[in-house]
Here is the input.
Amino acid sequence: MNNNSFNLAYRDRGTWLDRASGATKLLAFIFLSGISMIVLDTRFLIFLVILSLIVLKISRVKFSEVSFLIKLVVFFMIINLLMIYVLAPGYGAQLYHSKDIIFGSGPYALTKQELLYLVNISLEYFVAVPLALIFLLTTNPSEFASGLNRMEFLIRSVTQFLWLLDTFLMSQKSISKSVFLNKHAATRFLKKQAFLNV
Here is the structure.
């Protein structure tokens, strides 16, 4: 089999990314991808793209190994961008509260804001895809499974802590409510007594 063929299997490349735990890489992937989906600042997205590409270069993943997948993602990204423009041509202007027409007229007039929005969407792809490739190609599946097993205790502990915190806060809320009601009742009683004494 050709060594440069399309293959999304784990292979130890001897980098620090191979030695990092799978759970850590998963959390980094979710965190950075999530941030890129929320943020609309083009400068920050460009920074995340550069960071993703640098880490992909450090991981020693060859382009020939993932070129088919990248071409497929770019193809679907282009379809996605076209569909966004066709189905919601004014969303960029609505999102940025401005409308500077570059060319065209009517609902499909291309605005600077729509173009900026579409560029930001494409940058989000260029952040998420390298991170996903890093996660897939540098994570040993068996190590990842055992790491998730170890995390189960942590997840249960956090869940239990949140449940206890919620129970405590609800009990404090009911205590403060009863104290408030008692103070309110005491105030009414004192006012009533003062009225009777006059």
